Amino acid sequence: MTKPLKGLLIGCGFFARNQLHAWSETAGAEIVAVCDRDAERARSYAAEFSIPAWHDTAEILSSGAFDFVDICTTMETHEELVALAVRHRVPVIVQKPFAPDIDTCRRIVANAAEAKVPVMVHENFRFQKIFQRIRGILDSGEIGDVTFGRLSWRNAIDVYSNQPYLLQTKRFIIMDVGIHMLDLARFLFGDAGDVSCFAQSVKEGLAGEDAATILLRHHNHATSIVDVSYASHRFPNPFPQTLGEIEGRFGTIQILEGEVLQVHSDGQQRREIIQNDSRSWTSSPWTQIQDSVPRTQQHFIDTLRHGGDFETSAEDSLKTYALAEAAYRSAETGRVVDARTL
Ligand code: NAD
Ligand code: 89Y
């Protein structure tokens, strides 16, 4: 049996706990050290997850001890940390948002490409079971070519308790959760060009927008709407479900609350209830997101081991981040912005 790839996880904050649980289920890999510039956080996660080493500086990447690095810090740190990994030729999986703007994303990609170091963006929503199933239905041809899609994330989660940095983030919800929706839009409906967006700051005192409505025109002539809000009042709270619908030439898929798909085709409808895998460490309401993390990380490791392209490679993700950039520029100017021209 081949030895597991040895990994370093950088950033022992809120979301890293899910990634560390997920790494313990990922075949062919093991986290051998964690790192946080806050030494106490690194020490505490090392103890909780029985990881043999902890460090308070990412410079440990120079040790030659790692086959990959998992970067779970916030976006403004990614350029520097990915560059450090690239300098030491360590393959990278890095959390979304990849970087705050498209120019930074492009610099990261160019630097890694020049050194031929693989980089994948940890984009986990497409690895949720419900979206894997929808992709399967679309691939089966049951509803025909997609003509329209809507992906809607509107909920009442108090996102600021777990992720207080979002209060100060200038490019807020489009980067935080809009980016998941834009990746899903590409995954399900295809690449897009024209983008139109209205953004709102509903909660007082935020540095950025907490709601946005985005209209996309896809290259295959499908249109889609992505709408996101952290300022919605809903009981029960649908967090963290992405709801919506997909219309094709022969049928429709509705994505309903309770992880239900209602599929209309051939003059009939059927319901499919999507069950997440049962894992000891997942819990409501986070289960749907947590459950997708081992699949995301397994894809990274399998691709590193066996070759091929990451589904959400840094390079491919440039198309997703160009859509986000176009959304911000559209919101600023009131114009339709073609992401291909940025
Ligand atoms: P966090 O602030 O709780 O944790 C980040 C940690 O990184 C902190 O402990 C900080 O000290 C450490 N850090 C920052 N710079 C560092 C450096 N240079 N070297 C070492 N340590 C450093 O953040 P979080 O809420 O865990 O979010 C991390 C990332 O995960 C964000 O980009 C966020 O958007 C993303 N996230 C993704 C999902 C998802 O479903 N995919 C969900 C939540 C958060
Ligand atoms: O930051 C967000 C994300 O990426 O997924 C869920 C989240 O943590 C809160 O909405």
From TrEMBL:
It holds the Pfam family GFO_IDH_MocA_C3. Residues 131-235 form the GFO/IDH/MocA-like oxidoreductase domain. Signal peptide: none annotated. Residues 8-121 form the Gfo/Idh/MocA-like oxidoreductase N-terminal domain. Transmembrane segments: none annotated. It comes from the Bacteria. This is Dehydrogenase.
